[in-house]
């Protein structure tokens, strides 16, 4: 018996995962590796999964490490790219 499930896209102000469609072979290893299950495999040879819940990404990089073709890149949020320093070191 075949089961059908429905998933509803939940938008976010960030899009953490980007796919290079030229490199993707549609294996969906990234979707299987994602521990938060935000990637939904879609039918179609050579197509990357859909990012259904971008706001739930942990930026763990598991999908990037699992991808055999290097088709995935992560875009970390601005706050994670910032370097916080002690105000005392600024001489104020
Ligand atoms: S970085 Fe981690 S949580 Fe985000 S999509 Fe990849 S595997 Fe999933
Ligand atoms: S693991 Fe890489 S090649 Fe496979 S579907 Fe994901 S992005 Fe495409």
Task: Write a structural description.
It is a single chain. The chain starts with 16 loop residues before the first strand and ends in an 11-residue tail after the last helix. It is elongated. The protein has a domain of 60 residues: Alpha-Beta Plaits (2-Layer Sandwich), CATH 3.30.70.20. With 92 residues, the chain is α+β, with helices and mostly antiparallel strands. It has a two-stranded antiparallel ribbon with strand order 1-4. Strands 2-3 form a two-stranded antiparallel sheet. Helix content is 15%, strand content 11%. It is built from three helices and four strands. The model has no long low-confidence stretch (mean pLDDT 91). The chain binds iron/sulfur cluster (2 copies). One iron/sulfur cluster binds next to helix 2.
Ligands, ions, cofactors: iron/sulfur cluster
Instruction: List low-pLDDT spans.
Output: none
The proportion of residues in beta strands is 5-15%
**Which structural category do the helix and sheet elements fall into?**
alpha+beta
- Shape category: elongated
Helix content: 10-25%
CATH topology of the domain at 22-81: Alpha-Beta Plaits
Give average pLDDT, whole number. Answer: 91
| CA gyration radius, whole angstroms | 17 Å
CATH architecture of the domain at 22-81: 2-Layer Sandwich
Number of distinct beta strands = 4
Question: What is the rounded distance between the termini?
Answer: 69 Å
- Please state the oligomeric state of the protein chains shown: single chain
**Main sheet record:** 2 strands, antiparallel
- Which series of helices and strands comes N to C? EHEEHEH
């Amino acid at each position: 018996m075949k089961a059908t499930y429905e998933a509803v896209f939940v938008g976010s102000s960030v899009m953490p995962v980007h796919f290079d469609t030229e490199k993707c072979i549609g294996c969906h290893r990234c979707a299987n590796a994602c521990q938060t299950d935000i990637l939904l495999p879609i039918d179609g040879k050579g197509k990357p999964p859909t990012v259904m819940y971008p706001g739930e990404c942990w930026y763990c990089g598991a999908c990037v490490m699992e991808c055999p073709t290097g088709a995935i890149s992560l875009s970390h949020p601005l706050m994670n790219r910032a370097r916080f320093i002690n105000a005392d070191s600024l001489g104020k």
